[in-house]
Give the backbone structure.
Amino acid sequence: MANPIKKIRTLAGSICWQVDGRRYNASPARPQFPTKEQAEDALASMIGARGAGLNPGRRDITFGAQAGAFLKNSADALAGKTLRAYASTLQAHLLPAFGNKRVIDISTATIKSFLAEKRAPYKVVKIVTVGEGRCRDRTTTIPVGDFNSATMRKLGPEVERQLAPATVRQLRATLSVIFASAVEDELISVNPLAAIRLGRRGRKARVAASVAITEEKPFTETERNALLRWCAETDAELGDFLALLFKTGCRIGEGRALRWGDVHPDHIQIKRNVDDKGEITLTKTGLARKVELAADLKKILAARFADRQRTGHGTGATDYVFGNGEPLAVRNLGRRWEAARDACGLTSHRMYDCRSTFASVLLSRGAPLLWVSKMLGHADATTTLKSYARWMPSESRGHINLLDQPAALAATVRDETKAST
């Protein structure tokens, strides 16, 4: 999907930013703004004003209908991966519980009860069907409460399961956006999830909520070197790709989308992303960024460029650095990664941990937080701090004495400290 924001030159010769609002039924359809920030704000307002697209005031709309309308009308505003995550969550958990209920009948209390039930442990059992017809002799795992001795036979003991906290958060997030679209469509006046979000919680709950959503697990230097050595002997392209992730901290999709025109002598430009369906999209924040190149990575990219020219692969500005004319396919890349990871005995690691390694190494060695956040492409430094604060030096190096120093001397010390890092 083309970016609805474009930089144009007017007939008067001035530069401005134009928003194509036709798909959002905006009026005027193509407003112009002096800055990109104003254009982005206008686009966000257009998307929000449109809502899910159902007729306002109707009281018979079911949650399933509202969810379907939201997914359909958000296809051009959300990343493909995000859209598929919403659809998967709806299909597996939310539509069975709320699909046939009217939106106006689903209360905050109902949602609280549903989420509490999803957080609780439950027992499952593996069974085989013993009836007639197409479902005969099929094995599956079901909740113990759904077991029917007349048509099923247990294949093992009952096992206790529990949804991961991240899955419950995804349930809540999906419910929230669906009900937010219902508010925009004037089906309801208040998002029932708002009361849950703003409810009074104890101190321990607030502290727990402030912990980073994901537990970052960077590679050690020994693990990283073992992985790159294996790749050098077995899969050189994978080794170059992992080196890019380790040395720039870019997201996997951003690395797959890198073109030779984005590579410069001392930096790379991260302008785009490739989702898991192979579609070119904007970066996660929608913004481009410049990432500095370490000396080792400069050599790796230079050697790769020369090798691609020697073997007849494209090295033009629009040709991809990795892949064979197209970005690396996500499934093929995943299989190659798993082979390398398993061969090195690193089965607990994800490829995304290369990005975590970039951040943790730099922060632990004193790199400025704001600079690391900029390299990572985070929307703000708060995200970086929440995920990587524990790798930042926390012990005093006589910093308290800076309070007694004249401002000029303190500035000199600060500049010397920066130079040493």
Q: What stands out?
A: Residues 125 and 158 are 5 Å apart (CA to CA). The chain is about 45% helix and 10% strand.
